[in-house]
Amino acid sequence: MRRLALTLWILAAAPLTGQQVTYERLLNADREPANWMTYSGTYRGWRYSPLDQIKRENVQKLKLKWVYQMSAQDVGTTHQVNATHTVETTPLVVDGIMYFSEPPSNAVAVDVKTGRPFWRYRRSLPRKINVCCGQVNRGVAVSGDRVYIGTVDAHLVALDAKTGAVLWDVEVADYRTGHSITVAPLAVKDMIITGISGGEYGIRGFLDAYDAATGKRKWRFWTIPGPGEPGNETWEGDSWKPGGGPTWVTGSFDPEQNLIIWGTGNPSPDWNGDVRKGDNLYSDCAIALDADTGKLKWHFQFVPHDVHDWDATQVPVLVDEEWEGQPRKLVYWAHRNAFFYVLDRKTGKFLLGKPFAKQTWAERLDENGRPVRLPNTEPSAEGTLVWPGVQGGTNWYSPSYNPLTRLFYLSAWENVGLYRKGEAVYSPGNRYIGSVPEIDLPEDPGWGAVRALNPKTGEKVWDYKLHTKPWAGVLSTAGKLVFGGSDEGYFFALDAESGKELWRVNLGGRIRSSAITFLQEGRQVVAIASGSAIFTFELPD
Amino acid sequence: MAARESPLLLAGRIAAAGGFQLIFTLRCRILRRTIPGIETDVKKLVFLLCCATGVMAQTGEIRNPRTSPEDVAAGAMIFRSHCAQCHGIHGEGGRGANLAVGIFYHGSSDADLLRNISEGIPGTEMPGTFFSDNQVWQVISFVRSLSERAVETRVAGKPAAGEPLFRGKGGCAQCHKVNGEGGRLGPDLSNIGSSRSVKHLREALEKPDSEVLPAFWRVSVTDRNGKSYSGFRLNEDTYSIQILDMEERLHSFSKKDLQSLKIEKTSVMPSYATVFSDRQLGDLLAYLSSLRRKARTQ
């Protein structure tokens, strides 16, 4: 009995003794549902958990566990978290410790039992930082005994997971030319993969891999090819130089094929395509890179010559599933342009494309997935009304795939935008958008939903309608639940099969992040950021 | 960049302790770009100490050197692509402040505007920019041209003649407060001249339905007992709606408990296009436009 107790104590204590987050662990993250070790939970990008303690029958009993208030951490100092910075972080949980970012570029480690902080890395930033849409951060990566964070001044920083001490700090790009990092890095093998932001500042986009130990860059893939490289011919003249193609949402990894699959953003300038005639590769693409070399294996461009700012910055969802009678490696992708796509993961071949939200810009997709555009949908000086609006039918917030229901879940928008064309003059570090955009039409604000799709057909299975357009991602679980949130501040749980609301709580702050779930001392916990706080929920004793 | 500028700042502190440091630094930025041959930091320091004295000997004011019509046009182009997203195409405001009324809460002088556009405003969403000083001056010329147009309209009437119309014939004070006096059903107008252009105010008086803020949309509901309420839509979400009824009572309803819910995006305010003569309308506009809080200085 005593030996058993000792064994149990060792087993229980083992996670707290500081195991390293090895590549093996990340590779098999689905076997460790107690933890949430990468942005999307696993390399497949499902944002799905096999945990089922919280389920349809008991989710109504969820109660608050603890709250971590970011703005409260600096009360009485001059460094208070600025309330104008939206919280978009996805927390990670490893062996009893939660790691997350605070905007603009801070990182924190807290005890998952109490919510009390172990350490906090507070980054000093230059005064002039230009990020198109707020100084945000979507989360950290963990590898070995280190925590990695990208910063809005475009550095990548390695921190000691025990203390928050800086181990290395490398400049990824010059922030004074409109580069910034808002993406959560992805740890793959002995590398840290990071993207870049700056599609509204005429950067030349890239995806980078850094040696996790030293911070030395191992490879860089330019998302805008230079002269002599394939794809450069899709840019007129020198327009490729400030061509955009940022990489600001964490991609996925297919270990069997050794492929990093990542989305690229809009070409620059966003809404005036006259100065960059051509297809503008590899903007608005799914790109598949060899993880060891960063060499391009395949690409699929969702929107050739985009003039609506419809980034392909969504999480690629990698699923092995039967397709037309044959087992096949697939990518599911709900794109900002309001189409849901299925691609072949070995080749990038287009298999299916179907609108999941109202769209008025494409007559159809051809057999290669290339859109056949409708006339008069280009931005114009007086403004052109097009569905979806500039923020798309969906955006960066995470979708989810649930292997039990075999449904694809996402936050969807039904909205129209007035697209205006404007001058496009590039100057380093300043906005380069080619427009005077009208983001929201006050008289026609549109609405939103958490939506379930059948990924085999792209057909809608159910809708959970929201009065406002949600910027929160979705999490699905083996408890047959889908967790989502709204800009109204509600966090809710839906029946994954029917979409029926089963539980809801008003957290009082906008939810612009995606939920996670994990175990704390064997009990399932759900966590979400709302306002400038992290909230955790669990079942009562 | 920061290291190169530090001697300048130091010189500024020595030479211009007091309120002149900022002006001095800005002036030096301009001079440094226009006077060639000043290569070393030492030479710069000596020269700039002299120039600081010069600035102090004058009135201490920096003037926008780029105010020609061509500059305004160039500034408009930068404004449209860089600033309009938050401040509106015509500077009418939105996520950012209304810039078309000539009052800037973080300082109205040329130096204030140069600093705020170049460096951003701490504690707000206003970011800095990487434009040259000349480009920023052009933007300032354009922004000032917006309010210059508004000024022309403003002088059309007499504020002192407009106030009695506001309180008397117009009946405006029944619903609108000015400096603590008046009703509560309409928006408080104590500072309306700061946040709305004359053009906008005229349109609101003549065509009140042309733009109605969501908090003033008209809501009619019937609850599960068949009782009806109507009022203003203070707030609405997926599950509930909050209203102020016409008897100035607050209500919050769960949508699932309602038999009916109707929202009209029209105003309860009547049009004043035919109520007043043109002259009276001008006086009322002049009064409304005169309702401003004092600009904050830095």
**Total domain modules of chain A:** 1
> In the CATH scheme, what's the topology name of chain A?
Methanol Dehydrogenase, Chain A
Write down the CATH class of chain A: Mainly Beta
Number of domains of chain B: 4
Largest interface, Cβ cutoff 8 Å? A-B, 35 and 26 residues
**Rounded average pLDDT of chain A:** 94
Shape of chain A: globular
Measured on Cα atoms, how large is the radius of gyration of chain A? Answer: 22 Å
How are strands sequenced across the largest beta sheet of chain B? 6-5-4-3-7
Architecture of the largest domain in chain B in CATH? Orthogonal Bundle
| Mean pLDDT across residues of chain B | 78
| CATH superfamily grouping of chain A | Quinoprotein alcohol dehydrogenase-like superfamily
Amino- and carboxy-terminal Cα gap of chain B: 25 Å
Low-confidence parts of chain A: 6-17
CATH superfamily of the largest domain in chain B: Cytochrome c-like domain
Unreliable runs of chain B, pLDDT <50, ≥5 residues?
1-58
- Tell me the overall shape of chain B: globular
Sheet having the most strands of chain A = 5 strands, mixed
Terminus-to-terminus distance of chain A: 26 Å
Identify the CATH architecture of chain A: 8 Propeller
